[in-house]
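Recap from last week: sequence in, structure out.
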Amino acid sequence: MLSVDLNCDLGESYGLFKIGNDAEILKHITSANIACGFHAGDHNVMMETVKMAKAQGVKIGAHPGFPDLHGFGRREMHLTQQEIYNLVVYQIGALEAAAKACGTKVSHMKPHGALYNMAARDKLVAGAIVQAVLDVNPQLVLFGLAGSLLVRTGEEKGLKVAHEVFADRNYQPDGTLTPRSQANAIIHDSEHAIERVIHMVKQGKVRAVDGSDIKMKADTICVHGDEPQTLEFVVKLKQALINEGIAVGKSWDAK
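Predicted structure tokens:
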């Protein structure tokens, strides 16, 4: 039976600024990628999100990003390999401490935004992230763009990896995400997005923006928690997967 993980980026509120509907979304997903205070989130939000995820039995993941609150971590920063390693170690450590204090643990790590996209194509960025995971907690599952340099590097170094696909994003012919600066980056039609996800899971392919079909392994599906329609969409997506005979909640016992 086909099985897939359903993840969402959460814990992205900051101080009095509230974003997303984390408490409700957590009822419908299997993995939560929790912001660690650099691109979004703070110590209070992190602790509360960890507690809510634990209560719902949702796997907890660190979601480190660039130190760019104003840009929500979606602007590239050209740092040294050591600086990237340091900021990933710092953020994983913060979430692991919060999880330990709440009587639970971190199960995976997924870079955020520009850090994620750079790691998909830049060997120095990918190497720094993989080494950070290895040094902090090599038991963590590394989430990365399906087929990308990041997941390949993680596999080569012996990490468990999850090839991630996106429900609401268009793809380039080389398998990378269409940049958000382009008008067609986001898929706004929920029915179309769901059809694409099911095709990726069952057929292992996705239609790129130029009309070509590219191979796409789907271990985990991402929905974005900062969009106003996320809750409605994730409910529809989960039900559609179940209707197609696809179990939601993948085990990472094997690579």
